[in-house]
From TrEMBL:
Gene3D superfamilies: Outer membrane efflux proteins (OEP). Pfam families: OEP. One of its GO terms (cellular component) is efflux pump complex. Residues 350-377 form a coiled coil. Keywords: Cell outer membrane, Coiled coil, Membrane, Signal, Transmembrane, Transmembrane beta strand, Transport. Its main location: membrane. It is found in: Cell outer membrane. GO terms for molecular function: efflux transmembrane transporter activity; porin activity. Residues 1-24 form the signal peptide. This is Outer membrane protein TolC. The keyword Transmembrane applies. Belongs to the outer membrane factor (OMF) (TC 1.B.17) family. It comes from Tenacibaculum skagerrakense.
Length: 446
């Protein structure tokens, strides 16, 4: 009986361990399209998570500012033990209940205060709203930057993987040529230089494959960082380079209308101007008086012995209501200097706003130009690659027939390698320049 129970226990532990391992493995693996990667990063990217925290902090800051003008209640409790008295206690009551020079004294006070008017507070409320708006706009800006970073990182992974595949194909062809050259040399049909040339090419290809595989690993780690994942998270990308090039080849973007007033950078500049306007308003408000009211309620007791918890202890109650007015009269022109500084800051923000407008127009023009160039270069690179492949194929046939030399064939193959690299880079440029243009046009993340 005990043996059966032990078997069941061991089996249960094994199943639990096995299923836990599977769940942990599943959590450490992800399969993502580009769109899924972007939206995953919007939620989990480090910068976006920090931006969300900044928004929450801004909301709390807004309430902190609001609460400063709402009723405030504070309490205090003071106890005194007159260790050394100058003279004995004096009774102010015939019954001897009040002795202001008694050994023990306790006073408890509750105060309710209310701000009635303060120009700085009113400006502070407006500033808190602007501060929250700044945080929200920073989050929007971060989302756009995250999208571009993820698109570039996703594209880099695909390019790195495709580079490995191309190099491995090149190696297979070179292996065949090297094998044929060695066989020809053994049979006296080829020279030793032919073998050595192909061996040099073989070594270069192997070195490039090793480096390309390292680049794949690094590219995946960069993508994980952009996503907000641990760098060792296993990723499976469901889209190909050709898919992304097709999706990102959109000539309509070259003529798409541009709403300057709604651009995130322009709105941030406007908000910066608004902040400086409120700063000026704040400095001016400091010349206004402030008014507050308060009411408190106190209970006090005195005794020669510590009898404050006895039911017979006598307590005295007092209550006070009051108003306080603070009027700034003269600050040795300090307030005037601060007001002038705020006016200068506001003027500078107007200049920056105009600068932002001009820079955005130029930025969009440059982004469109780069995007158009990337599409043109891709078309050229695709044609050149097809030509290089045809030339290489013909030269290989001629070499097999003994019509051309190994030197001429390797020159042709090196030209093919160059066009292969140009083609990969052209594909990546379309993806990255499209992402840059989307940001320049302030295309929302969707």
């Amino acid at each position: 009986m005990k043996t059966n129970q032990m078997k069941k226990y061991i089996l249960g532990v094994f199943v639990l361990f096995f299923t836990s391992g599977i769940n942990a493995q599943e959590k450490n693996e992800m399969s993502l399209s580009l769109r899924e990667a972007v939206f995953f990063a919007i939620k989990n990217n480090y910068d976006n998570r920090t931006a969300l925290n900044d928004i929450e902090a801004a909301k709390k800051k807004k309430w902190e500012t609001t609460a400063a003008g709402l009723p405030q209640i504070n309490g205090s409790l003071n106890y005194q033990n007159n260790l050394k008295r100058q003279f004995p206690g004096v009774d102010f009551d015939q019954d001897g209940n009040i002795d202001f020079n008694a050994q023990h004294n306790i006073t408890g006070t509750v105060t309710l205060s209310q701000l009635l008017f303060d120009g700085s507070y009113l400006v502070g409320l407006q500033s808190a709203k602007t501060y929250l708006k700044i945080s929200e706009q920073a989050k929007e800006k971060t989302e756009l930057a995250t999208r571009e970073a993820v698109i570039n990182a996703y594209g880099n992974v695909l390019v790195a993987e495709e580079s490995v595949r191309i190099l491995e194909r090149n190696k297979k062809v070179n292996d065949r040529l090297l094998k044929g050259a060695r066989l020809g040399y053994q049979n006296g049909l080829a020279e030793q230089e032919d073998v050595e040339r192909f061996e040099i090419s073989e070594g270069n290809i192997i070195s490039n494959i090793r480096n390309a595989k390292r680049m794949v690993e690094i590219a995946y780690e960069y993508l994980n960082v952009a996503l907000g994942n641990p760098v060792d998270t296993k990723l499976t990308l469901t889209e190909t380079l050709e898919d992304l090039v097709l999706v990102n080849s959109d000539l309509e973007l070259l003529t798409q209308s541009f709403d300057l007033d709604n651009h995130i950078d322009y709105r941030i500049a406007e908000n910066n101007r608004e902040s400086n306007r409120l700063l000026l308003k704040l400095e001016k408000s400091k010349a206004l008086p402030s008014v507050n009211a308060f009411i408190n309620y106190s209970r006090l007791a005195n005794a020669e012995d510590f009898t404050f918890f006895d039911s017979s202890q006598q307590w005295i109650s007092t209550s006070v209501f009051g108003l306080g007015i603070n009027v700034p009269i003269f600050s040795s022109l300090g307030r005037t200097a601060k007001t002038k500084q705020a006016e200068i800051a506001l003027e500078s923000s107007d200049i920056r706003l105009e600068e932002t407008k001009q820079k955005l127009n130029l930025q969009i023009k440059q982004a469109r130009s780069q995007y158009q160039l990337s599409i043109e270069n891709y078309s050229t690179a695709k044609k050149n690659l097809a030509l290089a492949e045809r030339i290489e194929k013909k030269q290989t046939i001629k070499f097999d027939e003994g019509v051309t030399t190994s030197f001429e064939l390797l020159e042709t193959r090196n030209q093919l390698y160059t066009q292969q690299n140009n083609y990969l880079q052209a594909m990546l440029n379309i993806i990255s320049s499209k992402a840059n243009l989307d940001n320049a046009l302030n295309v929302p993340v969707k």
